[in-house]
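Hi P.,

Sorry for the delay on this. The queue was packed all week, but I finally got your sequence through. Input first:
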Amino acid sequence: MSNVEAPHHYKFNIKMTCSGCSGAIDRVLKKTEGVKDYKVSLEDQTADVYAEESLQYETVLEKIKKTGKEVKSGEKDGSPAEI
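Then the structure:
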């Protein structure tokens, strides 16, 4: 878990088969405005994103989808969310 205080915590279950996959997610999150912190785990197949109030779940979801990776599920502030 992150020690960063952030208004939003989004979690995504993403199909990643190699370090290239997790690296693509890492690169897109690094460039996304409003992301305060994030953790991409190839082992757990997850991405945890800690975001500013202004960054919506749907925006992060679309950025991840644009990498071509399959998003299996998502959570928005602890509640299941649409993918």
